[in-house]
């Protein structure tokens, strides 16, 4: 098992996101990604979600991506509010390890971390030391080669 701190830098290469800050939250089942805007469309008869995100400081490096919709489910946030969210699959890279995870798109505006990494994404591979932070450092600003 690889140890993570309560916050870490992560990459989502399949979405073209080279690096962003994520809060590791073992109290949350699913992972959530902040998006500035999202839109739905159909491609080849299958539902797809497109979205825009600013992974770092606002105005520095806007990323637009799209992914097939895996599911749509109700999620209860930390304030007890239930909302319907779109779920997609994405490649997560953290601590030098790549794995496919499921995450939902959310409005996390005003939150300190644009991504929340929930327990289903870390199960079986990572442990969390809540006394430590950013153990594995920042990934490079740019992804090597085209997105996977």
From TrEMBL:
Biological process according to GO: proteolysis
Residue ranges of domain Retropepsin-like aspartic endopeptidase in the record: 4-138
Keyword Disulfide bond in annotation: no
Listed InterPro entries: Asp_endopeptidase, Peptidase_aspartic_dom_sf
Residues spanning the membrane: none
Alphabetized Gene3D superfamilies for the sequence: Acid Proteases (2.40.70.10)
Keywords annotated in UniProt: Hydrolase, Protease
SUPFAM superfamilies to which the protein is assigned, alphabetical: Acid proteases (SSF50630)
Pfam families according to UniProt: Zn_protease (PF05618)
Name by which UniProt lists this protein: ATP-dependent zinc protease
Organism field: Luteimonas lutimaris
